[in-house]
Amino acid sequence: MARPYAAESESKEEPAVKLPEQVVRLGTVILALLVIVLSLRFFILPASFFSAQPHQAEKVVREMAKPPHYAGAASCRECHAEQFTAQSAGYHRNIACENCHGPSAQHAAGDKSAVPRVQKDREFCLACHAYNRSRPNGFPQVDPQEHNTRKQCIRCHDAHDPVPPETPKDCGGCHGRIARTKALSAHALLPCADCHKVDEQHMLHPRSALPTKPDSRESCGRCHAASATGPDVSKATVDLASHGGKYVCWECHYAHLPEGPK
Amino acid sequence: MNKREFLTDAVLFFPAAGLLEALALEAQGKELSADTATGYDPTLHWYGMGIDVDKCIGCNRCVEACKAENDVPDEPYYFRTWIERYTVRRDGKTTVECISTKPGPAKQAEPEDPSVVRTFFVPKLCNQCAHPPCVQVCPVGATFQTKDGVVLVNEKTCIGCRYCIQACPYGARYLNPRTRTADKCTFCYHRVTKGLQPACVEVCPTEARIFGDLNKLSDRLVRFQRANDISVLKPDLNTDPKVRYAQLDGEVR
Amino acid sequence: MNAAVPTALYEQLASQLSQVIGFIYPNEVETQWAILIVVYPYLTGIVAGAFILASLVKVFNVVEVQPIYRLALLTALAFMLVAPLPLQLHLGHPERAYEIYMTPQPTSAMAMFGFVYLWYLMGVLLIEVWFEYRQQLILMANRCRGILGHLYRALSLYSKDVSPEAIAFDHKASKIVTIIGIPSAFLLHGYVGFIFGSVKANPWWGSVLMPIVFLMSAIVSGIAMVMFVYIVLCLVRNEKLDMRCLDKVGLFLLVAIIVDFALEGLDYIHRLYQSEESIKILGQLVSAKLFTSLLILQVLLGMLLPLVILVLVRSKRFNEEFRKLLYFTSALLIQLGIFSMRWNVVIGGQLYSKSFRGLMGYKMELTGIESLLTAAVLLIAPFVILTVLIRLLPTRHIEEHAAPI
Fold this sequence. Notes:
The complex is a heterotrimer of chains A (262), B (253) and C (405). Chain A has 262 residues and is mostly helical. Chain A has helices spanning 21-44, 52-64, 73-79, 81-88, 97-101, 105-109, 122-129, 176-183, 201-204, 217-224. Chain B starts with a helix and ends in a 7-residue tail after the last strand. A four-stranded mixed β-sheet of chain B has the order 9-1-11-10, covered by helices on one side. In chain B, strands 3-2-4 form a three-stranded antiparallel β-sheet, with helices on one face. Chain B is α+β, with helices and mostly antiparallel strands and 253 residues long. Chain B has a domain at 137-142 and 154-183. Chain C contains 14 helices and two strands; from the N terminus they run αβααααααααααααβα. A two-stranded antiparallel ribbon of chain C has the order 1-2. In chain C, α2 runs parallel beside α14. Classes of the chains: A mainly alpha (262), B alpha+beta (253), C mainly alpha (405). The A-C interface holds A 4, 20-23, 25-26, 29, 49-52, 55 and C 102-103, 105, 127, 130-131, 134, 157-161, 163, 165-166, 169-170, 173.
């Protein structure tokens, strides 16, 4: 009877650990794959292949090399110093030239064929100045349907120094939302100056010379105190001594719409 | 070769390989260093932006300028920056709309609505987070933060998996339909590294947007942060945004 | 690359823009991860689940399930070969997909998942299949002539030893690989859940339970799929089905469904109870956009109904034919339910705005790369591959010869 393992036993006598044949085969395949992959990774192919860093550095260089389309107001000044000075004192002093004239880097670089656009149509100015109640308090706005309909804005307003042809008669020219809200209210006929002292400077430097707010209960009390007399006394009166503690009236009541929404 | 010999060699191979790799990177090191050909050193800067919500008039010029400067597709589905309009009412209900998708001024003034308590515009853009979740999830390192704090997308290595777009909590990213890679605001990196302002800051008529270098003591942005109460969007997500808002209403998400 | 943008894309976006309710960030109108990314976790889930079922035989010695052991392995393999395809097709640049292996970022779950997938395919599944089928491959190599014979010889890696000791070693090796394979399968599909669960920007996805829920639903779908394939296979071959096996698999399926249901229920209860800021918009999401796909398809038809059926099968004594029909129905319903679950997670997470103020829509295209057609092809492909695999690697053990030819 032949020994089952005669053909496979080795001539060596030492008790080596004998791996099953299939494990050797599988192991060889796995090892071969690992060796190929690892040697490719660590030896054959350059290290930069396996790092994102060189790609990122190259991207930074590429991004920095992109040509700007907007030149920047500073470069407009180099040739158009006159316009710049004319604008620098007016209400549009903080608006970059390219806001209205569009990207002009090519023009600034000297390309004669690249002429910056000149905005002449109404729509363009209305993008900023059409009445929108979400705009901040004090930003000059007009009702596009009421204010010189169909007329070009630049016929009356110099875009570089846009002083209105006439000084607005009421504060609503800039304080549109407040004016419109007040127009719906019981205080509609009250002039703004009745409660707010406004300095001349406010028209020129709005944020530096702010109008005042009433600082005493008596200023509303002139019309709303139970003890008030005179033709302007309101139908809504309260006893100032007992109503509202020591708070100034407008800390609770919104004076531009005192009756509140319906 | 038996098991033991193989393992010994392997143990020596890997450190050697590591050494070779380090040497290779060193050789390339000069190209990867801070000073590029233009002499610009990104390690000296840390860019950020300030937005004064009270000043925004919602004119949308920044959006138009950004699209013109950066070749963003014109269609209203792709924005690097956009303007939101908030209307807070007395009953607590707040409605928001994006005015950038509907360009052009309103044809007529809206009727006055007395139930509105507050209403304002908020500019939005990529916050260029100091701890960006988009960079964290990019599988191939195509999006990364530069040394001067701007998060860029390398359109040559981006595979377009869109994970970064999912990870951005601010909706600042989109997939560029032409390059089929992720895209977003770059703070006009090609401008700011030349000393120019980003396009949106350049054209803003009311200076609602302020761009600056947080590293410089006398920078306009640093002054802005000193003078105003500053908030950021979604602070609970710990993204550490570098776009700082002043007068930001609590309703803004 | 400045190729013209397909108008189909813009039409889809215009249509989705018109479906917006409330406010969304303008870039959110595009659904970033669409139907292909729904198909992908569905396929990998079945891989993990089928493998776990197979592991019950090898590691936990559930002998009743032995008849479908090989079928479970082949199902796992067939689905695993198709699963990377939806990912490839979805990429903006499929030709750059290799970069995930070249410059992987260790902070990215997606990048690390590429290696987990590779490990599972190469280090677990293929090795498991090889050890299980080695003896058979040698026998087939000896039987077959021509190309097929060469193929079998190559597949067996030119191994020739079919002695009882070698076979015994095969079984032992298989067991060891399975033991390593169980946590690997957990890692495989848990990782997919983690890719979603780690996204803090999206509260519908970003949850600690997400990897666990994904894993459990994977196990449910995998077991149900093997059950489904087994019934179909016996039908096609006109063979007698091992009812003891099917009943045992049904029991495991029942347990898996109960655990999955409990976990998903826990996720929802927890969210409702905590009531964080996102709960309002997520509530609207479920009621307005996901009502049918979540409450009807996923929960009612896909989980509760199969649960009731499986409980009934165990408690009442139905005859064999009826039990087979009930198992078949449950298996199908479960596939529907788990596919809906993937839809609800992937698409659902993109139907509401991160501003928490609006909802949008997803208009699935019928043809194109990211379309219903492609999804259908990808869902059918594993069955085609499985048919080929069963032909090549029979699930029945063939007669062993006394000695190799």
